[in-house]
Write a structure and sequence with these properties.
Length: 407
Amino acid sequence: MASYDLCHQLMPNGQGIIADFCGCSCGDGSSDAESSEDESDDDEPETVDTDAPEDTDAPETTVSAGNALGDTCGYVFGFGDVGGCSEGLVCACVGACADPMIADYPSTCVEEGYTTAGPSCADIMCICPTGQDIVEIRDANGCVSRCDCVDSPDSGDYTCGSTMEECEAAYESAMKPAVEVMIPTMTYDSCESADGWWVSGSLNGLAGYDAETMSVCVSDGQYMVEVDGKVYATCVAYGTPNQDTCTDDSLICPSLPNDPTTFGWGGNQRSVLAAAMSRADFKHPECPTSTCMSMDSMAGSGSYWKDQVLSNPYTVVTEAAVDNVCVTPDNEVMMITREGMCNTCLGWSSVATDICDTQKFICAGHSGQGEFSYGWPGQIARTLAVAVANEEGNYMHPQCPVNICSA
């Protein structure tokens, strides 16, 4: 009670002050008025009639006109109404009373310039960076004086990244299909005429070449095939037979049988061009710059893998189709088309027991201990044949678990 300056204020009914009834909370348990009356009763002096004022008379208890400036007023939790304020003052919730973090603090008698809502506060705009929360700092009048920015409880390092932005990027990456539908074939806009005296002999009887719809030209030192308004690189070097020397290591040299550095005759060049024409994109299967090689090239096995696919007993596929099968450095089996390379969603390895990456493609084998392996040649060949025969599905195996869009 003393801490709220209530002890010397009138009781709500006007009968005495609070200290008269709450002695334990206000000090000695009695009011100044009681002390004065007790002393007067114990040793009451003889009344002498003088004309002097009667200063020794006991004070009379009177009802105050209201609480003074700074006094508690209005309703006080636990005590009820402690009265209003003197004339010219109003009972207002200011200071600690206006602080929302302090409960049940009493109102105070203040000048009429204040209102029950407390003093007016300046508008403070608080802005914090992403990942931080605003903490308002208030003054004695309950007004926001400044703001602090603190880390949000859920900020900091996440399992998906150190920031929310990194997590969103990780989510977008995770949602991107692991299997791409098609890698487009690179084409050229133009080429020069292949008018060497040996060219007609090289094209004579060339398998896969249609003189009515195709033409052969030259660009970047290599044979090019022009068809349907597009120019495709063959990766086969162009040069004069038995005269020019092969100098570009990024190209296949159609050389003389006994001299690998010198351009061969028309028949030699025809033989190398035939291998290029076996591919739908006209690029030689052994091109040094290719990122997708045939299974037999990867395994160094002649035509063993090609024969395995062609001889599988369940799914019929053509030799032309198998000629367009290749494998990337990531062991993904691709199907080459004129437009680009399609992913079959199948993994390949020449080592049957290797455990495969099932996050990127399906695998034909099983380790026998609960893990998928690439599988034996017969298993891979049969699984691959199903994908190669699925032309309508962009040559992707029908059981591919990856959810992707169509090309």
